[in-house]
Amino acid sequence: MTRIACGWCGASTEVKPCSSCGRDPELAHAQRGRPAPALDDQASIARRLADARHRLSAGGRAITVERLAEELDVSPRTVRRWQQMAAR
């Protein structure tokens, strides 16, 4: 089964409800009109963060948690959690 990023809490989950927050992980993505991003593992999260950082720096913008969150369409809290996961 493919792991996805929960649209509510950003946790990696493969079940409904989300194993972290207990909500439907795909619903928030559907409400935004986007598919739920598939996450293979921590490397995938690290890759998404690195790509977002690259896009921000290429545009001459400072890299902050808030700008990363905007670029990735997640909350700043989710970005901080993903940064912790990617650092492990």
What features would you describe in this structure?
- This protein has about 90 residues and is mainly α.
- It has 2 domains: about 1-40, no CATH class; about 40-88.
- The chain contains 4 helices and 3 strands; from the N terminus they run ββαβααα.
- Strands 2-1-3 form a 3-stranded antiparallel β-sheet.
- β1 and β2 form a beta hairpin.
- The mean pLDDT is about 85.
Protein structure class: mainly alpha
Number of domains: 2
What is the number of helices? 4
Low-confidence segments: none
Biggest sheet character: 3 strands, antiparallel
Strand content: 5-15%
Please tell me what the overall shape is.
globular
Task: Provide a quick synopsis of the model.
The chain has 88 residues and is mainly α.
SSE blueprint:
Blueprint: E1 3-5, E2 12-13, H1 27-31, E3 38-39, H2 42-58, H3 65-72, H4 76-87
Antiparallel strand pairs: 1-2, 1-3
